[in-house]
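Handout for the seminar on molecular recognition.
Each group receives one record of this type.
Step one: identify the two inputs.
Step two: read the structure output and locate the region that could contact IPE.
Step three: write two sentences on what you found, then compare them with the reference statements printed after the record.
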Amino acid sequence: MSEEAPHLELKIPNHIAVIMDGNGRWAAARGMPRMVGHRAGTENLRRIITACVEFGVKYLTIYAFSTENWGRPQEEVDGLMNILAQVIEQELAELHQEGVQLRHIGRLERLEPSLRQKVEAAVEMTRDNQRLVLSVAWNYGGRDEIVCAIRDMIRAGVPAEAVTEETVSQHLFTAGIPDPDLIIRTSGEMRISNFLIWQAAYSEWYVTPTLWPDFDKEALRSALEDYSKRDRRFGRLSKCFEDNAAHAGKPA
Ligand code: IPE
Ligand code: IPE
Ligand code: MG
């Protein structure tokens, strides 16, 4: 089997965002409780983080708990909160060693104080790491993020005429993180589910029927191969990028 050729042609997105969907269906297909799927999904996440580091991805953003997921049965919500605590306890040291910078996007207010402290400590501990910036969307909603940004700008006294797209971006939870180049959604659903609704303006989408616990490094490679063939025009014509390639530094 030739490993070389696809490797050489891969365009690696600077920022990949993932809607990790399908844990419940993965478990149901095996006659198991939904939490078994969430645990399998968490193990897979660990593998995908490593794969992203190996592929040279600089930013990875994962959708792990939405503002709407509070509407699930209490037992599942509690189970997911426990998983977050466990992941931080068990994986933080190794992630830190691998040079992963952890960020949180969303709101921490609604979390148990002890969990909130764990998240804040993990972010603080890894803040200077540069190899991969891993943003965990937890109690995250794109609309909520925009509401927070508007409130923030009003509180800061930003005058109406000073509000630009740049100003809004700087007040989002993702301030300082470039927009995602590629958004992957597993389990086949063709919707955004309130994820990065501002930042996704010109992201490329890749939807696969594979359920999240089964989305392995090879599946990620397939997504990258597909992405490598895309012609990103940003509303312009490919020719404009060819003409400007030498000095613009924009993605071709
Ligand atoms: C994604 O898997 C994980 C979370 C939303 C927390 P789901 O739990 O949504 O799995 P399905 O979509 O029910 O299969
Ligand atoms: C999106 O998946 C949220 C996460 C992956 C955390 P959902 O399963 O909650 O989305 P819907 O309900 O199918 O739109
Ligand atoms: Mg789902």
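Reference statements: The radius of gyration is 19 Å. The chain has a mean pLDDT of 95.
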